[in-house]
Amino acid sequence: MAIILPPLPYADDALAPTISATTLQTHHGKHHKAYVDKTNAAIEGTDLAAASLEDIIAAAEAKGDKGLFNNSAQSWNHAFYWNSMAPSA
């Protein structure tokens, strides 16, 4: 299963003025997406292609694959980051 870029759990402008819509779009749509894309490229055609993101991270760490570890862990970290924030009530 390919790793997917999860949608943001709120609108792009929902965290403004603390985080602008432009900053959110750039960080999610470019930086986070790049980690997801690089993870998918690294696992394509391997036994990890059907693995969960958490299993990919663990396997990369166990194998000492620093590139895959960085990209997969950053994919997880960014998803956690987005879900750790919420618009003001």
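the 2nd protein, sequnce then structure:
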Amino acid sequence: VEDYAISRYTRIGGDNFDRLVADRFMESFGKRVPLDSLEEQERLSLEQRFLRYAEEAKMELVTEMENRAMFGIVDGSDVRAEVLKANVLGDHPFEYDLSYDEFLDMVSPLMGEDITMDMVDNDQVETDGETIMTPVVDVLLKAKDKAGELPRVDVVLLNGGMTRLPAVRERIGRFFGVQPVTAGDPDMAVVRGAVAYHYNLHRGIRIGAILNDTIGIEVIGGKVKHIAPAGAALPYRSPVIKDLAVTNDGATFLDLPFYLGRRTDIAQPNRKIASRRVRFVKPLNEGDVVCLQVSVDERSIMSLEGWPEKDKSQAFTVTVQSDGTYEEKPTSLGMISRPVPGFNRNGQSKGSVSCNGPALNVHSTVQRLVNLCDKAPNPSVNSYGHGDAMKEIKDMEKSVLMASNGEEFVPVVIDYIGRRNTRGLAKSRLILLLGDLGSRHPNRRTEIFRVLKDICAPERISVAPSTVVNTIFRYAVEAIGKVGDRSAEDHLLKIMGRIEASSLWNSALFSLGKIGAGEAGFQKALSLLKGREKGVRISSLWSIAMMGSRERGNLSASLADDALAKVVSHLEREDHDDAIRNGLFAMGELGDRRPGRSTVSEKTCSKALKAIADIRQRATRNRFGNSTTIRSYCDIATAMVKGEVLSQEQEKSLLGLRSMLG
């Protein structure tokens, strides 16, 4: 068997079907029992309970349909699953008579009924939906690109638990025009395949691998140039690409935004996986050709080698992981090969981490972590460095993050967070751990953000007890920052739009900075500098620095100029050490004139340098609690605004500020 095309869309499964049914169950239950006043923990626990009920009902319906099929009966109009549960919430029971036909109606959004083979053949369908047809369409389009025409499909072989559902088999059959084949137990098919694969590996037989998606690089005009095609046999090495040229004189850097997908532009379903900026000691001129050559190994890790055609001494190499993380291979030719740890140019957490620790037993590890939290004396989420109990908790969290099967912890941690008996320190630490897992496993970010977003939903803040707002809600907001999903900006701003959520503003500001929020988040942080308590000022200045960082590239020169002027003005009357430190951080980032960014005006930079000099003079006179630290940050900010290269010690200090509360 030769792999011809593989889809990356593997997220739709039984859980998605269960979720739709559970939503209907909860809606029905809510008509009889008021749910609006439930605390967050109670609601999450109730949602998890209805998910279990939904799965049980689904399996009952599927089993009955399978039994009927054995006797040649295909009609399911009278097939029903009766759900009877006592004491679902307090003493309130839950009853639901679910017919097979109603079940099919509930899950119809997942079936992709509007997609036809003709649409695929005529390129009239995209793979940006979430239905069972998404991976089918994706793999057919890739095969079409590779073969030059839509290949003939002779046999469709199904595996996986949800293929037991007759409606799934029927939908696939209608699409292809042939009845799909199931071989053996569909639940065990994947397991058998994994066993056979590893058995062959131990015998020295390596099954050929192919690249599962097209890799491209963004060029001017929002276009994407393909540099490695889907379906290419691995390992793969491209010919030298020589049709990319510099568009302006004096170019000192080259942006390399990488995308996955077959489209020739940056629109969805193309997906940005990484971005890197490489810099040149010797500026390039308009029309200079930059040559690229791509290599992809059997693990789908891409290495991009590049060099100016007229000056091969300025060669560079960038390695991009298949999950979107990347790392540099340094050169000895003046290239700046140190990306800011934790961030790519768009402010997303890049998650370039090593998860090479031993695999852990997921359920027992999470249960042990919960037990440790429950037994911890005088529990405090932020009891850093004190007590054997907290050290053991943190060590166990670290082992989870480093585990080779770390991604498997995500659904289990989510489940434990939603349990009624998970409370206090355990719930808080699990929420923060979930955020860290999101930064480590980018393909889980959307799912994790959805859970965290539900925990700290703005509309629940006004009805939740203050203790819940200041603990559970707060840690969910902080965890959102750890995940690094820029789509969280709107949610964080909604939280900050509620006066009753003012205790969450500090955490929301730090999270806005971490995700690299856009102009709306930046303007919000600027607006909070005036007349606010010191904690908000400290958070606002740090957030302004992060959103205005050279590594983010989010702001126009005019907006950065205006913001720098406002920060300078604010620091003239600021008297708190931490706020002044973060203000110096913000002035350095906004006024950064080292090579490779659009600079703010000379006039504003001069004002910033004067303000920094004034602060340094005050520090020299020991006017601050830690004048030595303030002086060192003054020197860093001065060097950045002047466009000077930072020393290694200064780089280390700057990175420490950027990773604050990380």
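The chain is about 45% helix and 15% strand. The first strand starts at residue 80 and ends at 89.
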